[in-house]
Design goal:
By secondary structure, this protein is mainly β.
Length: about 525
């Protein structure tokens, strides 16, 4: 049985010593054949250090950001890794203890200072200052690359050397206190993102903003953030309890935002330090509330006036969204509650994995279909979806709201990726990690939305990262390209490696084994060689 020793392997993988960094390139041992056209760098981000001095973080997502890259050139692969030199990292290292709070770990920077005096500093602001430990993803803004998390801070990095560069505060350009790590890019290279603005007197709203791909020639040395544009703002349904969200959808003409009842309590957040609780405890799931689906017209910069909703759910990752015959179709990974986040507290991981406890909420990939043109004469209870190749429906209610019931596409998939050339367009294939009974992926899958068939790759005692799709430069079909994933192995006789699969057949083309340890990461991107050249 593949990965049958899950508990011991995963425990050793997660609770090993803090990962070392390898800032100088290390040549990998290549087995198989890397396609000649594949030239560029896989750049990924995730937690690498979970203790500083004698102190440890509470949650796996709190660990200090460790960047790593695989540079592919002329059939060879070079690996390097380096900790993000954030203010958080530098402050903690200087003190040799955790002095900057993360979402699951509240720290008290000055043990000699009275906790109440520090709390009053926090209480003078609606939102405390967050960490710049940007450990989740890599975002491209303009011609530059940034490590990101979900706070108002991002850090510019050099994608070739992994050097940490300047710190950017979103609030200096767009009034958001929190922002997603999963933006979207249009065909011109403009970046679209969204964040939550927590204002005075409870004026909490969601902000959708755009950062241009290029700036005027006269301002080439100016940051693209100077030209940021707010496209739309949406008031939160409950102003003191905005929704948590990790991503959103975008079609050619619309933005799709799912306002779920997984909510941040602003008052708790503002007093968290005073009461000695972490920020994560200020987020809770309300299973009896609705999930509202907002559609924003990118042309008018206004929300569509129809109120769409569905049952309570928790979602982290959108897959794709597109328009078809007067409908918006969007696919999303959902859970029935927020237990996934709780499982990643290190104490829970130790307990659950050692005892063989299974996930209480498994992910489902679901398809929602929203009609854009509502027949005012339609009867109450009528299904307004006219697309035939889906079981998703949208039912008109007496008050005019539209209840959306999704189609379940598949179960057990997370960290979804697509051929991004099809983002916002009708598409067929989803590439994702596959989780079974525990939250650590054991397989890479390709799901065919049309046939419902699934291809899988797995190898005993190998733990794959989020798969990245890289299209062939002369591709004629959606799945013509390769899948790339960094693999952590818990087999003592096997080194970690970069895996390259044929995206059409899922057969292995090659792998590049690394003679050093690598870490489990979260998200990343592939940067073609042409985008790396200064």
């Amino acid at each position: 049985m593949e990965n049958d020793n899950v508990s011991d392997s995963v425990l050793g993988l997660i609770f090993s010593e803090n990962r070392k960094e390898y800032p100088e390139p290390i040549k990998a041992e290549v087995r198989g054949q890397i396609p000649n056209w594949l030239q560029g760098t896989v750049l990924r981000n995730g937690p690498g250090k979970h203790s500083v001095g004698e102190m440890s973080y509470n949650h796996w997502f709190d660990g200090l950001a460790l960047l790593h890259s695989f540079t592919i050139k002329n059939g060879e692969v070079y690996y390097r890794s380096k900790y993000l030199r954030s203010d958080t990292y530098n402050t903690n290292m200087e003190a040799n203890r955790i002095v900057v709070s993360e979402f699951g770990t509240m720290a008290y920077p000055d043990p000699c200072k009275n906790i109440f005096s520090k709390a009053f500093t926090y209480l003078s602001h609606v939102v405390p200052e967050f960490t710049d430990n940007c450990l989740i993803n890599i975002i491209k803004y303009g011609e530059d690359f940034y490590a990101s998390s979900e706070t108002n801070f991002i850090r510019k990095i050099d994608p070739q050397t992994l050097e940490t560069l300047e710190k950017v505060d979103y609030t200096k350009h767009v009034t958001v206190n929190l922002a997603t790590s999963h933006p979207h890019y249009d065909s011109a290279g403009n970046t679209f993102n969204m964040g939550t603005s927590i204002g005075d007197k409870g004026k909490t709203k969601y902000i959708i903003f755009k950062i241009p791909a290029a700036v005027p020639d006269t301002e080439k040395k100016m940051s693209p953030f100077k030209h940021s544009e707010v496209l739309c703002s949406i008031p939160a349904h409950k102003l003191l309890s905005p929704s948590y969200y990790h991503s959103f959808g975008m079609t050619e003409n619309y933005i799709v935002f799912v306002e779920q009842p997984f909510k941040l309590d602003i008052l708790k957040l503002a007093t968290a330090y005073f009461r000695g609780i972490n920020w994560a405890s200020c987020i809770s799931f309300h299973e009896d509330e609705k999930t509202w689906i907002h559609i924003i017209d990118r042309r008018t910069k206004k929300p569509v006036p129809v109120r769409f909703y569905t049952d309570a759910l928790v979602a982290y990752h959108h897959v794709n969204a597109y328009e078809e015959d007067g409908h918006i179709v969007f696919d999303i990974i959902t859970y029935k509650d927020n237990s996934l986040y709780d499982m990643f507290y290190l104490a829970n991981l130790k307990k659950d994995l050692s005892e063989g406890t299974k996930m209480t909420s498994v992910p489902f990939c679901k398809r929602f279909v929203l009609p854009l043109h509502i027949d005012k004469d339609a009867e109450v209870g009528a299904n307004l979806v006219t697309l035939t190749l889906t079981t998703a429906n949208a039912l008109k209610e007496k008050d005019g709201d539209i209840f959306c019931h999704p189609e379940v596409l598949c179960e057990g998939v997370e960290l979804p990726r697509i051929n991004y050339d099809y983002n916002g367009k009708k598409y067929r294939y989803i590439y994702a990690s596959y989780v079974e009974s525990r939250p650590i992926p054991t397989k890479i899958i390709k799901y065919d939305i049309v046939t419902k068939n699934m291809l899988c790759w797995s190898e005993n005692m190998s733990w794959p990262a989020e798969p990245l799709f890289v299209p062939h430069p002369d591709a004629k079909e959606e799945d013509e390209g390769v899948i790339i994933s960094s693999i952590v192995s818990t087999d003592p006789n096997k080194r970690p490696y970069l895996l390259i699969l044929d995206a059409k057949t899922f057969t292995e083309l090659g792998r590049a084994s690394i003679s050093r340890e690598i870490h489990l990461d979260l998200h990343g991107i592939f940067i073609p060689e042409r985008n790396l050249t200064p």
